[in-house]
Amino acid sequence: MSEGAPAAKRARAGRDGNPIEVGYWKIKGLGQPIRLLLVWAGLEWKDTLYECVQKNDGTYDKSSWFDVKHKLGLDFPNLPYLIDGDLKITQTNAILQHLADRAGLSGTTEEERAKANMLFGLSGDVRRRYTGAAYSPKFDEMRPGLVESIEQKLAELDQFLGSREYLVGQGVTVSDLLWYDLIDQFLVLDPTILDQRCPNLRRFHSRFHNDPKIVAYRESDRFITQMNNTQAFFK
């Protein structure tokens, strides 16, 4: 980008003026909250997608990632990764925190930031239970207990949200986007999961799901619908 480019244009791009790069599998997984944050913040970004392909013998080929894993200049090579100019980082929470800080979505007070971090941790706990079941060959028998467990956590989150529009403070934070993504996936797992105990989260999900920025992204070619990777038993 030329030195004469408008400041607003530079602010939306990466640190070097180029689009921010997000590397991840061609699924939602841990990459989707990052993508949603970039969409919400109006930052310029591009996906670098890696595919896990099932071979004829039933095994899975992940060479699209492993062939380049140690060639990208990452200190701790892993997926997802983010390249923002000369900054190259891995670890989902570190990436989300970097982008949230840049976009002003970390919370405006010490209390808000503390609660946003609490919701980060809670989302990780729930996601691990969900993905652990999704990748298990016993998924079908685990499903009822999984739904019950998630429903309980969502009921607690519903009570925490109450009548507020956002989970933390008076505006959107990264924790809202994290939980919108999780709830969206849980509604595929069980379309009724919010019906009995989570009226506030139903309203919360609808607000983000129907926001023009999110709608435009969902209707675009870059939106990914597959939630878990090829070897999962719930995709």
UniProtKB/TrEMBL annotation:
The keyword Protease does not apply. Pfam families: GST_C_3, GST_N. It is an enzyme of class 2 (transferase). GO terms for biological process: glutathione metabolic process; xenobiotic catabolic process. PROSITE patterns: GST_CTER, GST_NTER. The keyword Transferase applies. InterPro entries: Glutathione-S-Trfase_C-like, Glutathione-S-Trfase_C_sf, Glutathione_S-Trfase, Glutathione_S-Trfase_N, GST_C, GST_superfamily, Thioredoxin-like_sf. Keywords: Transferase. Its EC number is 2.5.1.18. Residues 18-107 form the GST N-terminal domain. Residues 109-227 form the GST C-terminal domain. Conjugation of reduced glutathione to a wide number of exogenous and endogenous hydrophobic electrophiles. Homodimer. Belongs to the GST superfamily. Mu family. This is glutathione transferase. It comes from Chloropicon roscoffensis.
